[in-house]
Please model this.
Amino acid sequence: MNDAIKHRADDDLLVLLSEWEDTLNHKHNIEKEWLYMQGVQDGIRIIYPALHSSDYRLAH
Model:
């Protein structure tokens, strides 16, 4: 939180802003986790067929 806000705001407002900031951070973290899992799923979709192709079996 910005130092200027901390010095000018009263305690109730600081609590409210802190809770709002925590909520935004939580939502952002949920979004990042969702995007990460989408990447994992995409990676599995790309790798899985390659691992089960006949070319892969012949090479190993």
Notes: The chain has one domain: 3-59. Helices lie at 3-8, 11-51, 54-59. Residues 19 and 25 are 10 Å apart (CA to CA).
